[in-house]
């Protein structure tokens, strides 16, 4: 096929396409890039002669591919120069939608220069031209997309490693070391201890439990990034972990909203405890937050954000001492009656609501009443009496605390 010459789109109505056997690809590429610049398509790309030269080179290669294809010659299966350029754009944080939009507009402009809209073309089959255009666009799109994914994954891995290092340093009390990483260290943090239950699909025998759990963790991390960007520092597993949120990035009430968002993203009910602390106090605050989380889980409290202000009594009851041992002994009469101990735990965890307790235990409310009477007879303390129930509640906390220490 002989292509006679390339013309500007605005002259297409009065000139036929007459490109010589060796088309002026350099000139066409330059005009395509000029068109993209004038149209504002490249407005988000960092200006400069280097970038313009790179775009021109990539455009020239793509036009060469198109001309080879239209001439019946086998074109290259890869666009290495485009791949290298796309890697640089990804590292420079040029949005991928900008690059792909430029590719579409560039291909359109290039076709108008190679194949004018008006009149019949000289030896160019329009069907072949359309097919070649689709093939080239697909090659460009796949090359750019795969390159962006590869580069962004590399950047994400580097950031993840840095975050892990900084978080570990702060949790260990090495504030100075954490500051050397390049990641900004806040003066104060909300220290969150998280308990993330298994997703229902993790118990589906048809699915890989580990794969489902990792997906849940990725959704949690993605939601966290959406809410706080790169401000939060995390040390998480599929079961939970620790999150450090700068106090200038989130309010106290915002922590509750954050945990709700994480629960929604993972489709599980996340339980959290939070303690505010200066950067140098993070190790102690982390231990405190996880101690509170242990108490919340031991007591079977509802999944939400819990704070020391509402768990002060429970926390104090877990401290060692003679009173702790004496409280633990109050439940010894129930050691031979596990169903009564379970009923007591559920009854107190549901704010002494017999109906809710019965629902959780899958028994009739009257059964709960009967068991409460038996507990009262065995321990000498009536769980339904406002003057004595809190002794049993305190005893449960003391016993669970002891069991946790033994474990």
TrEMBL record:
Q: Which residues form the PucR C-terminal helix-turn-helix domain?
A: 340-398
The UniProt entry, under InterPro entries, shows: CdaR-like_regulators, PucR_C-HTH_dom, PucR_C-HTH_sf, RsbRD_N_dom
- One Pfam family assigned to this protein is RsbRD_N
- Give all residue intervals belonging to the RsbT co-antagonist protein RsbRD N-terminal domain: 27-161
Name the domain of life: Bacteria
Question: Which PANTHER family does the entry mention?
Answer: CARBOHYDRATE DIACID REGULATOR (PTHR33744), PUCR FAMILY TRANSCRIPTIONAL REGULATOR (PTHR33744:SF7)
Name the record gives this protein? PucR family transcriptional regulator
Q: Can you name the source organism?
A: Nocardia flavorosea
Taxonomic lineage from the root: Bacteria, Bacillati, Actinomycetota, Actinomycetes, Mycobacteriales
